[in-house]
Specification:
This protein has 456 residues and is α/β, with parallel strands linked by helices. The strands form three sheets. The protein has an eight-stranded parallel beta barrel with strand order 1-2-3-4-5-7-10-11, surrounded by five helices. Strands 6-8-9 form a three-stranded mixed β-sheet, with helices on one face. The protein has a two-stranded antiparallel ribbon with strand order 12-13. Helix 4 packs parallel to helix 6. The two termini are 22 Å apart. It binds beta-D-fucopyranose (FCB). The site of beta-D-fucopyranose has 12 residues, from loops.
């Protein structure tokens, strides 16, 4: 890929957005309250052996009842944006009409309170909790799912569009399609290459349709999708591992961003997707968006693996690379590289909508949580982002994953990603040392960004 050559947009640096991100199933709880329907994750969590310790999102951080306290904490933190997701089955319990007024009213309360706290709501339509009823009709393997999603997008736009202007259609579509439909490890727990291809294409169609519906129902909407961009490197020497890394790169980094932004599938995917594609589909998928949402944690080290339908597996990083609590390699330089390359490939303003790390946090004798590894990680990664901006990448915002410790999918509650510690038995929130570090970063950032802009 070419390196970025653009000069820095000084105005966009002045309006740089600092935020935190969460998602519905990971924090809300209240799984059986006020008419919420079941999602694929409710059922998946109930299957033996799927989730560490048999955990579920039934209660999670009880954010459904404690959202006001959580917003007050965000205000203390000093963020000017909050990215959350709407639980589709909370507002459409079967995934289609009729709608659930109590569920819609929860998001009204959340949005109104955010606005009163001067925190801009960034609403993500889909962070993996597909209504179970739709899964029973094939879920993302069914082409009709794009239409169901479009109708859900219309509901969101017409209900919240007077107050919410920032919309992301999907969070990390490559993660939930790859692990949910092919490699295993996520809901709905299918392992089939054909299902993966169908899911990829139908999610792309759903994205394009939702962009159109949001434009039609929200004035001044600012719309994007959230892609997890991670360099894919071979973990071992040998042609088969090099090929596996190229294959994973196509599925992980290109399967959604390329058709949505550039209007074509990556070369390695074009033939496999073709049987599921109709003549006008790429034009329906490639609808104009306003920005590129980018999540990044680490690079991938890839091996060939005949044990799954895609033929790829995740190998260990080199022995000298430090790892996070999740075992993910900590390599800030890969983040800088990713931002610069994404900038030059897609030519859209970038918002980093997730970055953060899991560490083994504990409450200490003084009642605080000294999470130095998270501070080290965030410092190194935000420095890498500033370096990318200096190199010309048009990055306009940064959101930490996550505000709170929460339900980390197959790891359950065993991994803590929050700036705020959640004591699950009591639901007490304890801001960690990293919370105070991030608050200071946000305060000092305007001067730092102005300095970068003046030198460009
Ligand atoms: C991302 C997910 C998010 C969270 C973080 C750690 O892949 O979008 O929900 O699980 O990883």
């Amino acid at each position: 890929m070419r390196a970025a050559t653009r000069s820095l947009p000084a105005k966009s640096l002045a309006g740089f957005v600092w935020g935190v991100s969460t998602s519905s199933y990971q924090i809300e709880g209240a799984a059986n309250e006020d008419g919420r329907g079941p999602s694929i994750w409710d059922l998946y969590c109930r299957q033996a052996g799927r989730i560490a310790n048999g955990d579920t999102g039934d209660v999670a951080c009880d954010h459904y009842h404690r959202y006001a306290e959580d917003i007050a904490l965000m205000r203390d933190l000093g963020v000017n944006a909050y990215r959350f997701s709407v639980a589709w089955p909370r507002i459409m319990p079967t995934g289609r009409r009729p709608t659930n007024e109590a569920g819609l009213a929860f998001y009204d309360r959340l949005i109104d309170r955010l606005i009163a706290a001067k925190i801009e709501p960034w609403l993500c339509l889909y962070h993996w909790d597909l209504p179970q009823t739709l899964d029973e009709r094939g879920g993302w393997t069914n082409r009709d799912c794009a239409q169901w999603f479009a109708d859900y997008a219309t509901l969101i736009g017409s209900r919240f569009g007077d107050r919410v202007k920032r919309y992301a259609t999907f969070n990390e579509p490559s993660v939930f399609t790859l692990f949910g439909y092919c490699l295993g490890g996520q809901a709905p727990g299918i392992s089939s290459y054909t299902s993966l291809l169908q899911a990829i294409h139908h999610v792309n169609l759903a994205h394009g349709a939702a962009v159109d519906r949001l434009r039609a129902s929200v004035s001044d909407a600012s719309i994007g999708a959230i892609h997890n961009c991670q360099p894919c490197r071979p973990a071992r020497e040998g042609a088969e591992h090099v090929l596996a890394a190229q294959k994973l790169d196509a599925y992980w980094n290109g399967a959604f961003a390329d058709p949505q932004v550039l209007g074509h599938y990556p070369r390695l995917l074009a033939d496999p997707i073709a049987p599921h594609q109709r003549p006008d589909d790429l034009a329906r998928i490639c609808r104009p968006v306003d920005w590129f949402g980018l999540n990044h944690y680490s690079p991938h080290y890839v091996v060939a693996d005949a044990g799954n339908p895609l033929g790829v597996g995740f190998g260990p990083p080199p022995a000298n690379v430090p790892r996070s609590g999740m075992g993910w390699p900590v390599e800030p330089e890969a983040f800088r590289e990713t931002l610069v390359e994404t900038n030059s490939r897609y030519r859209l303003p970038i918002y980093v909508l997730e970055n953060g790390t899991a560490s083994h946090d504990n409450i200490d004798a003084e009642g605080g949580v000294a999470d130095q590894p998270r501070i080290d990680y965030l410092r190194a990664y935000t420095d890498a982002m500033f370096a990318a901006i200096k190199a010309g990448a048009d990055v306009r915002g940064y959101f930490v994953w996550s505000l709170l410790d929460n339900f980390e999918w197959a790891s359950g509650y065993s991994q803590r990603f929050g700036l705020i510690y959640v004591d699950y038995p009591t639901q007490r929130r304890i801001p960690k040392a990293s919370f105070h570090w991030y608050a200071r970063l946000i305060q000092s950032a305007p001067a730092r960004l102005a300095n970068i802009a003046s030198r460009s």
